[in-house]
Amino acid sequence: MTICIFPGTFNPIHIAHIKMAQFALEKFGFEKIIFIPAYIPPHKDINKNLAKHRYNMVKLAVDKNSKFDISDIEYKSEGKSYSLITVKKIRELYGITDRLNFIIGTDAFNKIKTWYKADELKNLVHFIVFPRIGDTIDIREFEGYSFELVDMKEIDVSSTELREHIKNDTSKEVKEYIAKYELYN
Q: Is residue 33, in this structure, part of any structural domain at all?
């Protein structure tokens, strides 16, 4: 099975996340995109009490697409979510011996060298890098990394902005979930 993982904080998941996954699915012919909500992202200050809600919102957002799935691999860890550990577990779970496809935005990719054991991670994955308005990448800085920049209309929706202005950028189910649990007030 040709899979691609999409790890992230998803605080909350929004329409740009779904569009990125759908674009990757169609462009690369993946059989499955696996969304992996972080329990505690190492590079972000986040309320760990929201982990369950973030996981549930991702589940709601991806349930209607049979090519999308959600993994609780990081959620179950109840600790910091290091991509290297997640990638190793997913590779083992699915019997993957080649590089694992990994969706990432330019904002995160530009910081990849600061990630936990980045030199080891870079040998296990192929990054599919999505642009965001205002972000640039100096490809010379990523020698040894397997990656490609996708040619998709730039996405300029950040979860931070979304939490401040929850409007039409989440699915109906996610909006209802946010309202029900009074999140991001």
A: yes
